[in-house]
Design brief:
The protein is mostly helical and about 250 residues long. It contains 7 helices and 4 strands, in the order ββαααααααββ. A hairpin with a 2-residue loop joins β3 and β4. α3 runs antiparallel to α4 and α5 crosses α6.
Length: about 250
């Protein structure tokens, strides 16, 4: 890791009462490393300007290149665990990463695909909709494969389509049409992928599936492990007396 840091601090107070490291190539050499004293007077006006440049390689935090910032300029940081806006995607990523396949935007897009495909399959089973005849086993297998084989590359393809449509759900519909346009049977009913649906019809089911699958696949198994661990501790330490307390204070008989 290489890091260059420079800082310049100015105040309208004459006496130095700052605690800071010696800046690198700092233009104002009047400030040196010093400690706050108990007699220091509070500053009434302080201005600080800093410039930082970092380059990190082979780190679990990812790579941050050519980062420069100051009080007058905005940041331009590559995404990493250090630059994520949310602690869940940064500091605590290792704790919650198992939820990513379900609760991320990738998960949302995947479940949107599932809902759209399931809707088309259901329409094909309704006799009152002759425009969508019942699919053959081969066609059904192809459609289910779009769900089971959905990948990050597929999600990226949806995002590229969204750049044109400016609509996230419509991008999923176009993605499915592109994937099925070469299929002899499904290509005849492409316009029925989203037939009679609004975006909310797709989204509310996708969000519900995200939560359901995350609970069943990740959260409940972890809770079961936690309950088992607490139960074992309670059983193993049942013979150990515990000192009684009232409002955090020792409970003593008078």
């Amino acid at each position: 890791m290489e890091m260059k840091l420079g800082a310049c601090l100015k105040s309208n107070f004459n006496q130095t009462s700052l605690f800071l490291c010696q800046p690198i190539n700092c233009q104002n050499t009047g400030y040196r490393r010093s400690c706050l004293s108990s007699t220091s007077t509070a500053h009434t006006s302080v201005r600080c300007r800093a410039t930082a440049e970092m380059h990190i390689k082979n780190s679990s935090f990812g790579t941050v290149e050519k980062v420069k910032t100051s009080a007058d300029n905005s940041f331009d940081l590559a995404l990493s665990s250090l630059t994520a806006l949310c602690p869940l995607d940064g500091r605590y990523r290792d704790k919650v990463k198992d939820l990513a396949p379900f609760m991320s935007e990738y998960g949302l897009i995947r479940f949107r695909v599932l809902v759209e495909v399931k809707w088309l399959l259901k329409l094909s089973e309704v006799p009152e909709i002759p425009e969508v005849p019942n699919f053959s086993p081969r066609a059904k297998s192809f459609l289910h494969g779009l769900i089971d084989g959905f990948s990050l590359d597929d999600a990226m393809e949806v995002k590229e389509i969204e750049k044109v449509t400016n609509h996230d759900v419509k991008a999923v519909e176009y993605f499915l049409k592109q994937r099925c346009q070469s299929h002899e049977e499904i290509s005849k009913v492409l316009e029925f992928f989203h037939f009679a649906c609004t975006s909310e019809d797709i989204n509310n089911l996708a969000h519900a599936l995200m939560l359901k699958e995350a609970i069943n696949s990740v959260i409940l198994p972890v809770m079961d492990e936690l309950i088992t661990a607490i139960t074992n501790i309670a059983t193993q330490t049942a013979h150990v007396p515990m000192l009684s307390r009232t409002h955090g204070q020792l409970h003593q008989q008078r």
